[in-house]
Amino acid sequence: MSATAEETVAAPPRRRLRLALWLLSRSFSSMLGLFLVIAIVVLALIGPWIVPYPDHVAGAVSLANKLQPPSAAHWLGTDEVGNDILTRVIIGARISLLVGIGITFAAAAIGVPLGILAGLAGGRLREAIMRFTDLFLSVPGLVLAIALVAALGPGIVNAMIALILVWWPGYVRLAESKALSIREEPFIEAARVAGASRARILRRHVLPNSLSPLIVKMSMDIGQAILAVASLGFIGLGAKPPTPEWGAMISIARGYLPDWWWYAMAPGVFIYLAVLGFNLLGDGLRDILDPRSNRG
Amino acid sequence: MTQPLLRAEGLSKTYEGKRGLFRATRAVQAVAELDLALDHGAALGIVGESGCGKSTLARLLLRLIPLSAGRITFDEQDITALDEAAMRPLRRRMQLIHQNPSAALDPRLTAEDAVAEPLRIQGLATGRALRDRVAALLTEVGLPPAFLHRFPHELSGGQKQRVCIARALALEPDLLVLDEPTSALDVSVQAQILDVLDALRARRGLAYLFISHNLAVVRQVCERVAVMYLGRIVEEGTAAEVLGAPRHPYTRALLGSVPRLAAHGVAPAAPGEPPNPASPPPGCAFQPRCPIAVPACRESMPPLATLMDGHRLRCPRAMEVSP
Amino acid sequence: MTALLEIADYRLAFDTFDGTAQVLDGIDLTLEAGGTLGIVGETGCGKSVLARSLMALNPMPPARVVSGQIRFRGSDILGMSDREMRRLRGRAISMVFQDPASYLNPLLAIGTQMEDAIRGQDAAVGERQRPRAAARARAAELLAAVGLPEPARLLDSHPHQLSGGMRQRVLIAMALAGDPVLLVADEPTTALDVTVQAQVLALIARLVAERGLALMLITHDLGVVAAACARVAVMYAGTVVEEAATADLLSRPLHPYARGLIAAVPDLDHPERRPQGIAGSIPSLITPPRGCRFHPRCPVATERCRSEKPLRREILPGRSIACHHATP
Fold first, then answer.
1. Which residues cross the membrane (chain A) (predicted)?
2. pLDDT tens digit sequence for B103-145
3. Do C321 and C242 belong together in one domain?
4. Are residues C84 and C122 in the same domain?
5. Given CB atoms, is B167 within the 8 Å cutoff of chain A?
6. C284 CB within 8 Å of a chain A CB
7. What sign has the CA pseudo-torsion B251, B254, B260, B264?
8. pTM here?
9. Which 3 state secondary structure label does DSSP give A28?
10. Axis-axis angle for helices A12-26, A261-289 (nearest 10)
11. In chain B, what residues touch C268 (CB-CB under 8 Å)?
């Protein structure tokens, strides 16, 4: 009894990779997202070595050059103390990316274990975790973050801490609902029938199968966190000038609108592209990471 | 006389109703006062329509869900009150095959990993020995080694069900509970799987509790058959008796409703549909649809009587009408 | 007089990542007005895709018509605009699906959904929509026609209050709203219990007889075909391998696949006849076997079957087989 015709399926690993790329390449928006994210990561990585005016990062003052429009020497113009804006937004990418990734991973590290615990344990423990989570979710995130930074004192590290504290409940919610639905899958019952312990079921089945939506959410959240940090910077609760953080830059540039529009526009466009990139990539990943969608 | 491998006495499962803010859900008796016995190496079919409690019964017998009342004995050991840890060594000896093989396999594990999983859990083999064992199991169910590294979505339905069977066999169980094992498969594949199951039983002396709505399949696999309606057994006996010469009016209706290849047209054998388990009719659960019901049938649930030949029947009327 | 439905050399392909799947490979079928045709085959044989083609329900892309025609009352459906197709759907051709629960909106009362369907029919043919009350009267009439008791009360209930069999009856009633001449039923009883299946099959048979409906019934269950269809076409891997009167085919199948399929069905009344599986499994439609698509699994295949695709030919009156080795 052989299955002749079904042998045509190619070897899994390479096919899966090609399939992932194919799914991605079919969607223009996913490709755009991927391109934007790669561009920002590359800028962040090699930024310090490619910027035209490395000493402008810390805020050198050359008032003779202040508020110049874009030119061959300063592609994006200069700011109110004569710093090259291109240099500063490129270095800003490094800060924003680090902060965005840091907040997202820290929030997931707190939220996911709690959520899965709640989903699998059920009963009183679940009630306790979920009601505590609801408590956080019932207050608008940014407002709570502002209050927290106000208490902790302004600064980029405190802004991060505040944002992590308001960010984790979303992961509890997602991980819990995912764990709840996976718990009902027949393959979990099959593992129980084989005598698997709870810990093993969690490690081997629940966690790997919850990963896809978590990765999608994390991709989107990096963009949102970049935006949130910039917002805090904008209202003066995040990074302090002259740190080249995008939000802080816009905060100052605002005073020079509309005549010196290029000053505010550069960090604004970078924030926009970064958030857009991570969101589009997250959408694309959603399609790719579903193992059941691999039929093409 | 030897003891049966599996015995259930007075087994009941009630899903408690909940009183919510806006509406209360009623308690549902999914399985009620059910007695059955399965001998070593025997095959008992459980048939009935959706909502009759047959899948709940499977999970009760395997101690996967808590029971409300009754007693379960496995190989002379009372397992009614064992906790999860105490059940773990027994799990090796009783395995479950699901209806939908696609859902019963973790989408992220290859066929090899899926079959190896129980062996790893029970610490029965490692390394080279483990791989050899897995390959041998897959060969035994008719999957050549080419399939070892396939993921579930790269297998056909029949191939997935073979993987599930190999996984269940890995622990060398004495009892296989099969919950509609061929319902999700095409008929030509179903016939292959039935062959595999027959060969395994002959070779390994497995006992089957075979749950299905397909009477013809049950007739092929099982020596004895129990018919369930609304959580209770209404008739039980040898397959030849129950499916060849049914006595309970519900069994007759079931058999009469199966479309036959030889006959054009099908005459509905029973009006209406199975009642909602949350609001069962008074008396005998089948009486609203029963062609031979009399007013007395509405008064009380008839008992499951054991007849002289060991046949069990929950219908005093049937005995009156055709003794 | 032309037939009600004529499918001629219809080929449909799906473009997928792995390549182009030739899902339907030259289908030729004819259905007369008032005729009943069962389409049987196993998973992936293309029977549902064929049914959905009649209603233009296959998503294009990835689906793509390669060749052929589907003529309904002489005019080709494949060339129709969306607007022309809307006029046809429900009014001339209607469809009933496998899972009745997912085709009813759980939030709306049955009556509301039926009124919408009936008024939608009016709009599709360019008539003025009849008032709600008239539509409701019509809905009650339809529910009575499919044997549902107390139609008036039923119109006020919601889908979750109905059993599976009642939901399927409601959907059949809705399919009748536009007085169609052809009913396409895709596995209409697969989700139902066997006692209820018998009731729904009897209902379909009654409607066909009373209203002169033509029926195309898609199913994997030969027993269902035996119960409801005068003629049957057996499909395998996108081709029709045998077409015949149901009784003839079931008692004496001539194509090797049809023989295998029937031999695989366990017989309740003759348990001593062991069901026989068909060795192997269905082929890939992206790289289908050359010649006859069934040859890798066929017990009588020869060299010719591996190289030359057998065309379906009438070897007995009203009976055609796509097999080089078929003899009457």
1. 21-46, 95-120, 132-150, 222-240, 260-282
2. 899 988 999 999 999 999 888 888 888 999 999 999 999 888 8
3. yes
4. no
5. yes
6. yes
7. positive
8. 0.82
9. helix
10. 140
11. 215-216, 219, 243, 255, 258, 260
